[in-house]
Specification:
Layout lengths: L1 H58 L4 E6 L5 H15 L2 E6 L5 H9 L7 E4 L2 H7 L10 H5 L7 E3 L2 E6 L3 E8 H8 L17 H13 L1 H4 L3 E3 L10 H7 L1 H9 L7 H6 L9 H13 L13 H9 L3 E7 L2 H7 L10 E4 L11 E6 L3 E4 L5 H14 L3 H11 L17 H10 L4 E4 L8 H15 L5 H17 L1
Parallel strand pairs: 1-2, 7-8, 10-12
Antiparallel strand pairs: 3-11, 4-5, 5-11, 6-8, 6-9, 6-10
Helix pairs in contact: 9-18, 13-14, 18-19
């Protein structure tokens, strides 16, 4: 019996072990089957995702971008550029040009379509406020990195939303031949030996007043060409020169990203830099080639002719003035002698101030189109301003002063004042923004200009001029 019991126990044990092994094997097999199924599913999913991505990439393949052009006069050049770009890259550039004076209206219509512009234009900070929902941040693009003066870009917070592609600049134009003649005078009262040393108002004033004292030796009628104050001829003073004090006043308002937006928000002005304006204005008038009493009859053309004929050493104007100077019969100013100086007024730190540089022409990329179209549009603009063929179009056919470091010396405009603007933008100085875009009205400018004429003629004090400027800003902004 004992043997039987032992045998039975052994048999039961063997059966249990066998069952356990069978269960283990089954479990293992089931696990392996499950893993195989999961692996198959994963592979199927991977293949599915890969197919989706391929389909997506196929959909994102860009063969056309769309540029809404602002300037009708250069539409044909852009059509040529588009043809060359397509031949080189296979990407078609659709160029549509808005009729003169209808750009905003056309843009509103076009962005609502199923195939909207991928590249469009804004007119600076004011335009950005209207179109910021459509403007892509361009701060990480090569195009932005090419910009020679990054303070010119339209920014908001850390983002860059508009890139200027053509600029103009103004300041004090001077004839370097006359300046060199002054520096060589044995009896001059200053120790200044080159224009590089003239980097603030105090130095400019000392040089100018000493030049007036030596006018006969320098063979000039006055240091500055006539301050044209006739009706319709005052824009250099009531707009361009007025830009200086109001730029600094609005720049002080750190609640805004730039001086233009601060100016647009200002219902009143302090005219806190009025004395700085008076500094330079008085310097112009008191050292002019024309007596004060005659300035009310002088035109801009008179002023530019005086400079071109060598009767004056300096004149306030912009780079557009070269063709006018060069076209004067009897012009004696050589292209290599025509230079720019910033308008110094005595503001603290103005040694780091550049020319007044601005534009109303900024590229923006449509943030509402696909990322692929955005990148293709950026690629086109980078090609236009960095490739040999693109740059040739920009300089020689579009005729732009392009504010980019990609242009070599022999690729820049031949116009000496245009080259001066570019040279100043590449210096370690800060360009002065065209803040006059924020002025409340044309009437405001005219009240300012008329008050200046009365001041020059002795009919108004400077304090009265200041009051007129402040009051007319307030009343015009309130309309």
């Amino acid at each position: 019996m004992k043997k039987s019991s032992k045998l039975l126990a052994i048999l039961l044990t063997l059966v249990m072990v066998a069952s356990a092994l069978t269960a283990c094997g089954g479990e293992k097999k089931a696990k392996e089957t499950t893993q195989q199924k999961e692996s198959t599913k994963t592979e199927e999913k991977k293949e599915e995702t890969s197919n989706d991505q391929s389909a997506s990439n196929e959909e994102e393949k860009v063969d056309e971008i769309y540029y809404l052009n602002f300037k009708p006069e250069i539409a044909e050049v852009y059509n040529q550029i588009a043809a060359d770009y397509e031949a080189e890259t296979g990407i078609k550039v659709k160029v549509v040009t808005a009729a003169s004076g209808t750009y905003e209206q056309t843009l509103k219509s076009e962005v609502a379509k199923s195939d909207p512009p991928t590249i469009f234009q804004i007119n600076g900070p004011v335009g950005y406020e209207s179109w910021k929902d459509y403007c892509l941040d361009l701060k990480d693009t090569k195009l932005y990195s090419y910009l020679s003066d990054k303070s010119l870009a339209v920014t908001s917070g850390d983002g860059v939303y508009g890139i200027p592609y053509v600029v103009e600049g103004y300041g004090i134009i001077y004839n370097n031949a006359i300046m060199e003649k002054y520096f060589a005078l044995p009896d001059k009262a200053t120790d200044i030996t080159s224009m590089e040393k003239v980097n603030n108002f105090a130095t400019l004033k000392a040089v100018v007043e000493d030049m007036t004292a030596h006018a006969d030796a320098l063979e000039i009628k006055g240091v500055f060409a006539s301050t044209s104050l006739g009706a319709g001829e005052q824009w250099r003073w009531q707009t361009h020169l007025a830009n200086m004090p109001l730029y600094y006043e609005f720049k002080d308002n750190t609640a805004y990203d730039n001086s233009i937006l601060a100016g647009l928000a200002a219902n009143e002005i302090e005219f806190k830099y009025a004395d700085n304006y008076r500094n330079i204005f008085d310097l112009y008038v008191n050292n002019s080639s024309t007596q004060k009493g005659l300035l009310g009859s002088k035109t801009v053309n008179d002023s530019m002719a005086e400079f071109a004929l060598g009767q004056a050493a300096m004149v306030q104007n912009g780079n557009w003035a070269w063709s006018q100077i060069n076209g004067v019969d009897g012009n004696v100013v050589a292209a290599e002698d025509i230079k720019f100086l910033p308008i110094y007024t005595g503001v603290t730190g103005e040694e780091k101030q550049g020319l007044c540089v601005g534009t109303e022409n900024y590229f923006a990329i449509n943030s509402k189109v696909s990322p692929a179209k955005q990148q293709a549009s950026i690629d086109f603009l980078e090609w236009l301003f960095s490739s040999e063929k693109g740059k040739d179009y920009v300089t020689n056919q579009l005729g732009f002063i392009a504010p980019f470091t990609t242009f070599e010396e022999d690729e820049k405009p031949v116009d000496p004042l245009a080259r001066e603007v570019l040279a100043w933008m590449e210096k370690d100085v800060e360009s002065v923004t065209w803040t006059f875009a924020a002025f409340p009205s044309e009437d405001f400018k005219n009240y300012f200009g008329d008050a200046l004429l009365e001041y020059v003629q002795g009919g108004k004090t400077w304090d009265e001029v200041v009051t007129i400027v402040k009051d007319s800003w307030k009343s015009e902004r309130a309309k």
